[in-house]
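Amino Acid Chain and Its Fold in Token Form
===========================================
Structure side: the spatial fold of the chain, written down as a series of whole-number tokens.
Position: the record begins directly beneath this header, with no further notes in between.
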Amino acid sequence: MTTTAIKALPKSPSPAGFGASVPTMPPLPSASQASALTLRPEQVPQVVAANAMTCDVACTMCPAFNLLCCGMKEGDADGEGRPGTQSLSVTVHTIPARRLILHPKEWSDFVPIICSGWAMSSVALPDGRRQIISFLLPGDIVSAGSLLAPMSGHTVEAITEVTYRKFKREEIKGLMFGRAELLEKLFALWNEAKMRADQLALDLGRRRADERIARLILRLAEKVAKRTTVRSQTFDFPLRQRHIADATGLTPVHVSKVLGELQRAGLVEISSRSLTIRNVTELQRVADWR
């Protein structure tokens, strides 16, 4: 696989960090191995609460707010007198990094929503090789399909410590099927997921390595921007080279090479836990961003 030369900017810094070697971590279990895992007590997801959720101001930034919470605070009712969020019960869980939130063959009556932290959704081959389908941020439903089906077919794993809420699927279905505007939002959610899948297929099948990585950075920056009122070119970036490799269909060595070129060209600066886009225009050119 080849990459085009990235035009260097004058006097651009060459920060150390992501181009350097990443500490070696134990390999993740394959999908077949994950089902046989026995969790120690301290590894079991902690249930923080088990009652009707209470929405606050921060919830209005959550993409799932208008779908599951109907845009109403607890106890409110819509214009036709139908109940608000008191009709949805929820439990809140917190798990450490590198723990499974959802197994691909797990039968579940619940729909998990990420509240804080980063997670990833992936599919894997029997030998453990995987393709990351999406990175999940606060407000993301772990799988659009989980709204209607008990099995998602995806492995959902925490990248950082993650807090997530679990809604009962039957309650969600009862709420959505009784309200046309919520069904419309659900269809929009599915359409967005399909568009992401189409773009991923195009990226993996036709784009160069530098385009894939630049597009991933821009997509994540755009996603983070939608979840905050603060506009900045710097955002939390807990991903390692292996995460980017599995998301772009590249090897960690190739990812390291491309990221080094982007940093030397002054387009991005990556530290251990954050990423700063130094030149949006040039990064968009590299990514063929339209």
Summary: The mean pLDDT is 77. The first strand starts at residue 46 and ends at 52.
